[in-house]
Q: What sequence folds into this?
């Protein structure tokens, strides 16, 4: 069964600190992995997409990494801001299916 | 910059009542989706429409029906609401079908449905 597991489930950090969120997947074959940010009460918004050939991709203070051999991805947030408080969701397409597998997300709270 | 618009934002239903969630996108996307999101669970696909005139079941279709009215609009109907359908519902769209080829799924703002 295709699975996407995210850790930690929740995380609390102080403003200005860095943090790293993890995503492990068992989806096969692999085509891409996407990170979404979901603010409270809003719909998810795409942050970045990683394809098989990419190891690292940055989007401002967000840096995603991918290790296709170990089937792991991480999302690193640098110099966190209060606006980073959100749920971060890892999404991997299920092979050739139209149904991508969504992780349960990591809830990040940034305190002043 | 409307993107994906869904209505209503909030709704309370009594068990057995019916209702329709409306969704429209203005990005000329071919594919549209309905998801539900429950606490502690990832987004789950209810139904999707790969293109105008087609609809298919997702992971959790029981108790729901959909209509792809035209290229812009995709509605979700609960014929006889049950407490288990209390959830947050998201409509979404993408230019192409599926995400394996890298298509980005754009989500609406969500509809909070409570069935009592």
A:
């Amino acid at each position: 069964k295709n699975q996407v597991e995210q850790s930690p489930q929740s995380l609390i950090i102080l403003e200005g600190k860095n943090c790293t969120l993890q995503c492990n997947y068992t989806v096969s074959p692999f085509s891409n992995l996407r990170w979404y940010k979901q603010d409270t009460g809003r719909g998810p918004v795409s942050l970045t997409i990683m394809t098989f050939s990419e190891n690292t991709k940055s989007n401002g203070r967000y840096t995603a990494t991918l290790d296709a051999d170990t089937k792991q991805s991480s999302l690193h947030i640098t110099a966190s801001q209060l606006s980073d408080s959100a749920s971060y969701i890892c999404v991997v397409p299920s092979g050739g299916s139209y149904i991508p597998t969504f992780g349960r997300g990591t809830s990040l709270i940034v305190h002043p | 910059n409307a993107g994906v618009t869904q209505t209503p934002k909030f709704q309370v239903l009594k068990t057995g009542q019916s209702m329709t969630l409306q969704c429209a996108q203005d990005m000329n996307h071919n594919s549209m989706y309905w998801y539900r999101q429950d606490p502690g669970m990832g987004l789950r696909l209810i139904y999707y429409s790969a293109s105008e005139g087609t609809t298919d079941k997702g992971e959790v279709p029981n108790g729901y029906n959909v209509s792809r009215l035209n290229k812009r609009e995709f509605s979700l109907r609960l014929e006889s609401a049950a407490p288990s359908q209390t959830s947050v519902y998201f409509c979404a769209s993408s230019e192409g079908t599926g995400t394996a080829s890298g298509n980005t799924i754009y989500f609406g703002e969500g509809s909070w449905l409570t069935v009592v």
The mean pLDDT of chain A is 91.
